[in-house]
Amino acid sequence: MIYLNNSATSWPKPQCVVDAYTACLYALPAGQFRSSSDEGIGDVIDAARKKLAALFHAPADGRIIFSSGATESANTVISGLDWGGAHIVSTVTEHNSIIRPLMNCHSAAPETTFVPCDDCGYVSPCDIQAALRPETKAIIVNHCSNVTGAVQNIAAVGAVAAERGILFIVDASQSAGCIPIDIQAAHIDILIFTGHKSLLGVPGTGGMYLRAGIQLRPFKFGGTGQNSARLVYTPDSWEYEPGTQNVPGIAALAAGIDYLQERGISLIRRQETALITETAERLRRIDRVKVYAGKKDACGPVLSFTIAGMSAADAGYILNGSYDIVVRTGLHCAPLMHKALGTAPGGTVRISISDWTTRAETDALVSAVEDICRA
Amino acid sequence: MPRITITDCRPSLEPCTESGWTAWDCFTSGPLDDKFILSLRPLGNFTYLQSLARPFFKIQTDTYFIKGVKGTPTFRIAIPGEERTPVDGLIAFISGLR
Is the ipTM here above 0.85? Predict the structure, then answer.
């Protein structure tokens, strides 16, 4: 079986991730102030916070908050900010983990302008700037498209946001771990990430970076292991990690970051970019195939394609059933982007590679697509 | 060769994969062969891509489609709505075809 669905979740995981998760389950439960024991893995959560902060170049006074993943983080951010009739600028490249919270916000739903993208999935920072209004409170940008792999120029957008005093929120679900991110250089106020994709952790992990001074009203309250006598919070005391934390998952995430730091994200990016852009070029040469992919200087490990005369669902079914190649088909939870690309309602076939994907595997994909187009 | 029978039918684990259609995955008593696949021809517009590594077939109508891969013990039925009744009707019809 050839696995080309790493944008859904990365597989396989490094052995150190498996080992860290397993060791955590074997070790004496400790940590998060809930145990009388301070042995074993008590510092695993704080250690993981520090590793994430270093990975993202977060300022020392920023906060790394763990969650079950990018969706929970996005909901915490969007439902937790006091919008007060404000306006948001976002992009059509967003995932439903952003779009749906925006459109179903419990509080007064903010009016959102979704800035269009080009045929590759790029959004112009100038278009984002042009969409700003006096009442715009936040810009939300998907760093790397989960459909085409287009990587947005977040440094340019962040500069605009900083100049105008607007919150800059970046969804790094597809980029964290495979594309370098510098929170300070890009003026990012809130960074949303998931743990189980390019950060190589397990599903059920993720989190967000919050710049110091940003207050989000939590939508979840509960035990935190700290100050149990406090029943009512004030905004300056809000806590964001209620309930027992996913310590094995966080330990695995920390191990994934160790792996990435040791191997080097820049090296991983170079190799993945070379493989995905070469694959895009080879697919483009096949009659009936149309490729939707980022450009070499700004792409992630993802691309999409369609085959004229065949639904994306059928192409994916054939790749899986006839060639043992796992891909993802449909709208990829990014309906606005497919509408913009002209690929709705059937969507595209998406392939997404990882550090483990080999040239032989992409050769097999290209050969299978050639077969399908000849059939 | 024993006759291939449909042993089970469950909602697809990938509910959004067929873009607007509700997919059900049917399981058979053995790998699908040409006899089974060709018996489905009367059910609609029939496509059979036999040159693939494992041949793919599809029967398309306005109200359902059926697709699968030769040599695998499963095929998919998809309908526009979420009611199971039409799927059961199709399974009964397919079971009586041969």
Answer: yes
